Amino acid sequence: MRTRLRTELAPGGMWRDGLMARAKVLFGFVGILWVIELFDWLILGGQLDQIGVRPREFEGIWGILLAPFLHGGPGHLLSNTGPLLWMGALIMVWGVAEFVTVIATVTVLGGLGTWLIGRGNSVHQGASALAFGFLGYLVARGFVERRPVALILAVLTMIWYSSIIFGIFPTRSYISWEGHLAGLLAGIGLGVLRARQVRTGGV
């Protein structure tokens, strides 16, 4: 008992435990997305594809909370999995609570933005809005906060995923550029807020 307790309290053990906890949350979140999509694809025959953000339709406003968890097929989710894992891991540097905060903020504010500016008679869904929110958060926080860790994470994000920024332009009818733009702006807003809190000693 004493040996085990000392091992758990050792700095290396605490660091490993924290890293494992963050990895479990990150992979668990993405895993949930895959469980939902495979259940919809294999069992429901794609019925959940009709649920999401329906711009300016009050009966569709509830889709704001569900849209990031639903996708139009495994291929759609597969394209989002890499960015969610990589940028999610970078956000996890600040902890699980911050990761959850970013997801919640981008889901709600990005969803509301999509509901306001999205094309009429359409359904917007998918975690790509979260991916754009992650991008906006990491870059904005890094360049406003200007601390070494935040700057490094911002630069890494730009190196790996800056090319997805073109997704905020209306290039293809089946791509929700509105959701991408709204998610990006929500992430930027939260990133700037966090950076200012850090610089003024608020967090």
Helix content: 55-70%
Largest β-sheet summary: none
Number of helices: 8
Number of strands: 0
pLDDT < 50 stretches: 1-12
| Helix/strand/pairing category | mainly alpha
Instruction: Predict the CATH topology.
Output: Rhomboid-like fold
What is the total number of structural domains? 1
The gyration radius over C-alpha positions equals: 18 Å
**Name of the CATH architecture:** Up-down Bundle
Which CATH top level class fits? Mainly Alpha
Distance between the termini: 37 Å
Beta-strand residue fraction: under 5%
**H and E string:** HHHHHHHH
The fourth-level CATH homologous superfamily is Rhomboid-like
Describe the protein's architecture and organization.
It is a single chain. With 203 residues, the chain is mainly α. The chain has one domain (2-199): Rhomboid-like (Rhomboid-like fold), CATH 1.20.1540. The chain is built from eight helices and no strands. α6 runs antiparallel to α7 (148-161) and α6 (128-145) packs parallel to α8. The longest helix is centred in the first third of the chain and has 34 residues, at 11-44. The protein starts with a helix and ends with a helix.
